[in-house]
């Protein structure tokens, strides 16, 4: 089975889209609780077709080369 991941660039950083949820499905004031529970770095709002969709994002950090 092949995994397909969506990534986006936001503020010159690369992020993995962990979850997409319609804003009306989350109780007011609970977005930060979900962000913390899902270990996401940032939540952004994406307006598409008159619906507000929240994108829970995890930052994809740059690779670090370690030499012994």
Protein described:
With 68 residues, the chain is mainly beta. It has one domain (7-59). It has one helix and four strands; from the N terminus they run E-E-H-E-E. It has one helix at residues 31-37, and strands at residues 7-10, 13-22, 42-48, 51-59.
Low-confidence stretches: none
- Principal-axis shape equals elongated
For the biggest sheet, the summary is: 4 strands, antiparallel
Count of alpha and pi helical runs: 1
Strand order of the largest sheet: 1-2-4-3
Helix content: 10-25%
Features:
68 residues, mainly beta, four-stranded antiparallel sheet, 1 helix, 44% strand, elongated
Secondary-structure map:
Elements: E1 7-10, E2 13-22, H1 31-37, E3 42-48, E4 51-59
Give a brief outline of the structure.
This protein has 68 residues and is mostly beta strands. It is built from one helix and four strands.
């Amino acid at each position: 089975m092949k995994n397909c991941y969506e990534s986006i660039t936001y503020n010159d950083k690369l992020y993995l889209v962990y979850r997409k949820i319609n804003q009306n499905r989350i109780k007011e004031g609970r977005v930060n609780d979900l962000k913390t529970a899902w270990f996401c770095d940032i939540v952004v709002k994406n307006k598409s077709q008159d619906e507000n969709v929240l994108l829970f994002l995890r930052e994809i950090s740059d690779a670090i080369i370690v030499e012994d």
